[in-house]
From TrEMBL:
This protein's name: NAD-dependent epimerase/dehydratase family protein
Domain NAD-dependent epimerase/dehydratase: 2-238
Pfam families from the UniProt entry: Epimerase
Organism, as annotated: Fluviicola chungangensis
GO term, biological process aspect, one: L-threonine catabolic process
GO MF term list: L-threonine 3-dehydrogenase activity
UniProt similarity note: Belongs to the NAD(P)-dependent epimerase/dehydratase family.
Superkingdom assignment: Bacteria
Length: 308
């Protein structure tokens, strides 16, 4: 049985649906703060559960005897800059609750998402390696770097089987993104499909690592299914598929919708984007558990415009 905390988020929604497809809807419990189960997750069990309610999370997980827990509850980069205290609390305390449950033997495998946000302005920006200088300059990035350190510590000290991916920006059509600096790359498709002009909050030449959500979900499940001895990186795996600028995604869309127009009005998120890598070296994921991306930019564009 699987529990997904933070099921209503951009990754959580798609992960619940993919896990239910694979393991049977009744075996995957979706959990989030919403009182009612959202329409798109109604094909299986849903529970209102606050990832920070230690007593409730502990008693529920101990009682239900889940084998795997996916902890996706977090504040993302842009939102976290506006709520630093709560972002640190949510991103860190929820992780300790789950790591300790696994240490006590109540969970056998944990998935916890990290991000390219763990890299900072002093990190080599192109083909950023798995091991390199990491001085994140955002609240979100600091919390993800700290979380990676704790995941590796619990693995080394207590044998907790926790696995993690440093997601790039994710592009999806089944779930709305929330508060990410990379989310311009989702909003642009909504505007193009609606026949509206798009005002981009990043400069046209801001290259960022990105991935179509289907690739990200498949990578997550492949990592969780890999034999433990193949999972050699216990902080978090670099993972990559695409790297593009707002200008390049605009041009990819314009090939399909010639009338589409874009303008660029950078805001506070430009500084966040400038502190992140432009592209990522994910050779450890490729070598350790056979990662291969399937979606390039034009394939992502056709999938997004077809399904929105
Ligand atoms: C964000 N989408 O923008 C998330 C992600 C790499 C970016 O962490 O905060």
């Amino acid at each position: 049985k699987i529990l997904v905390l933070g099921s209503c988020g951009q990754i959580g929604t798609e992960l619940v649906l993919a896990l239910r497809d694979k393991f049977g809807a009744q075996n995957v419990v979706a959990a989030d703060l919403k009182e009612e189960c959202p329409e798109n997750l109604s094909n299986g069990p849903y529970i209102r559960l606050d990832a920070l309610n230690k007593e409730l999370v502990r008693s529920y997980i101990i009682e239900q005897q889940f084998s795997d827990v996916y902890l996706l509850a977090a504040l993302l980069s842009a939102t976290a800059e506006k709520n630093p205290d709560f972002a640190w609390k949510l991103n860190m305390e929820s992780l300790f609750i789950i790591l300790d449950l696994a240490k006590e033997g109540h969970i056998s495998k944990i998935f916890w998402p990290s991000s390219i946000a763990v890299f900072g302005p002093t990190t080599p920006r192109f083909n950023t390696p798995q091991y390199t200088v990491m001085e994140p300059s955002t609240v979100y990035g600091i919390s993800k770097q700290a979380g990676e350190r704790w995941c590796e510590y619990y693995y080394n000290k207590f044998g907790v089987d926790v696995r993690s991916i440093r997601y790039p920006g994710l592009i999806s059509y089944k779930s709305l993104p929330g508060g990410g600096t990379t989310d311009y790359a989702v909003d642009i498709y909504y505007k193009a499909k609606a026949g509206e002009h798009f005002t981009c909050f990043l400069k046209e030449d801001t290259a960022l690592p990105m991935m179509f959500m289907d690739d990200a979900i498949r990578a997550t499940i492949e990592l969780m299914e890999a034999p433990a001895e193949q999972v050699k990186v216990r902080s978090s795996y670099n993972l990559s598929a695409l790297s593009f600028t707002p200008k390049q995604i605009f041009e990819s869309i314009q090939k399909v919708i010639p009338s589409f127009t874009v303008s660029y009005e950078p805001d506070f998120r430009q500084a966040i984007a400038d502190s992140w890598p432009a592209s990522i070296d994910d050779s450890y994921a490729r070598e350790n558990w056979g990662w291969r991306e399937r979606y390039d930019l034009d394939k992502t564009t056709s999938e997004m415009l077809k399904n929105l």
